[in-house]
Amino acid sequence: MKNDDSTNELLYRPEWHPHWPRPLNLFWLVAAATSGVALVLAVVTIPEVIVDHSWGELAQRIALVLFLTGGVSVGLTLAGLSRSRVPKSVVPIDDAQLGPGVLVRRRSRGFLVAGLLALALFFFASGDGFGLFSGLLACASAVTVLLLPRTQVSLHVDGILRSSLRFGLRGPERTGDFLRWEDIDGVKAETSYVRVNMYVVRNPIIRIRSAHLVPKRTLQRDDTHNSIVVRAHELAVDPNSLMTLVMWCRENRWARAALADTDARLLLESPPVRERLRLSRDAPLRL
User: Fold this and answer.
1) Is there a contact between 175 and 264 (Cβ–Cβ < 8 Å)?
2) Residue 97 forms part of a structural domain
3) What's the CA angle centered on 176, arms 173 and 182, to 5 degrees?
4) What's 106's DSSP letter?
5) Distance CA 133, CA 122 (A)
6) From start to end of 143-198, where are the E strands?
7) Which residues are within 8 A (CB) of 45 and not within 5 positions of it... i.e. 6 or more apart?
C-alpha cells in the first residue's frame, strides 16, 4: 500500500459492491421530502412562539423539529440517497494489544434522545396528571435508549474486533470477540427481518464464521457457537462499504497494511450516489 502525499488519499481501495442493493425508492423519497417541508414549516414558526412566550408550545416545536430531522435522514437513507463521505465517528485507532486500525462506532442516538426529552418537557409544561405521567414515560424512554447495548467494530492489520458495552444491574459490562484474518472461515452478507405492524424492516448483518471462537463466550443476538454477527445497520457507515472492506482484508493479505494508514477511514467511503444507484439497480435484489 502506498500513500501519495500530494493528494493524501489511498491509492488502493476495495471495489465497492452492493451486497444489499438499495435502488432509488420513490416512496421513501416522497416521505423524506414531506418530512423536510414539515421541518421547514416547524422551524420558521419558532421565533413567533418565542415572542409569545408560549414555552410549552416551544417544547412541542423543538420535539417536532428533532423528530422530523431524524425522519428526513432515515427517509433519505431508505430511499438510497445516503451520503458517500465517511462520518467523523469513524476514526483511526492504535490499540496497545491489537495495533493500528479503524474504529467504526454505532450510529448516534442523539436526535432520538433529544426528541424524547423535548417531548417530556412539553408534557411537563401542561401541568396536569396526564402530562406528568406522559413526561415521565418519555424520560424513561430516553433513559432506555441510552442504556441500549453499544456495539462497535474495529478493523486491524491482524484481525477484526467486535466489542460491546452493556448496562446491567451489576454495572457496565464489556465484551469483545477478536478474530485474526487467517482464522476466519467465511464472511456472508445476511438480512435480519423485523416486523413492525404490517411493514417488514430488512436489516443488513454480516456473519463471520470461524472455528477458533471461544466456545463459552457470551453470545449476542444471532450469534452461533462458530460465528459472530456484526449488525451493520447499527453502525455509522454504509453496510455495503463495511462488508466490502471486511472481505477485501480477508481475501488479500497484502491489503491489510492499508488499515494502518492515517487515511484508512477513507477505505469505508462509498461511491457517489449516482454510481451506487446504478450498481444497485444492476445487482440482483436480495429478498
Assistant:
1) no
2) yes
3) 175
4) B
5) 12
6) 150-156, 159-168, 171-180, 186-196
7) 61
In a domain, residue 197? The reply is: yes
Average pLDDT for the chain: 85
Domain count, the chain: 1
Q: What pTM does this model have?
A: 0.81
- Show the cell assigned to 155: 478493523
Within a domain: residue 117? no
Q: Distances from the Cα of 204 to the Cαs of 109, 189, 226, 249, 286, in angstroms?
A: 19, 7, 20, 20, 10
Q: With the C-alpha atoms ordered 91, 96, 100, 104, is the resulting torsion angle positive or negative?
A: negative
Query: What SS3 class is residue 255?
Result: helix
**Which of 114-128, 182-196, 238-252 is predicted most confidently?**
238-252
- Asked, for residue 286, whether it belongs to a domain, the answer is no
To which H or E segment does residue 207 belong? strand 199-209
Q: Which grid coordinates are listed for 140?
A: 424513561
CA-nearest of 4, 9, 19 to 248 is: 19
Helix (H, G, I), strand (E, B) or coil at 26: helix
Amino acid at 195: R
pLDDT above 70: percentage of residues in the chain: 93
The model's pLDDT over 62-120, given as tens digits with 9 standing for 90+, comes to: 877 877 887 888 888 888 888 888 988 899 999 889 999 999 998 877 777 877 887 78
Range(s) of the domain holding residue 248: 87-108+149-268
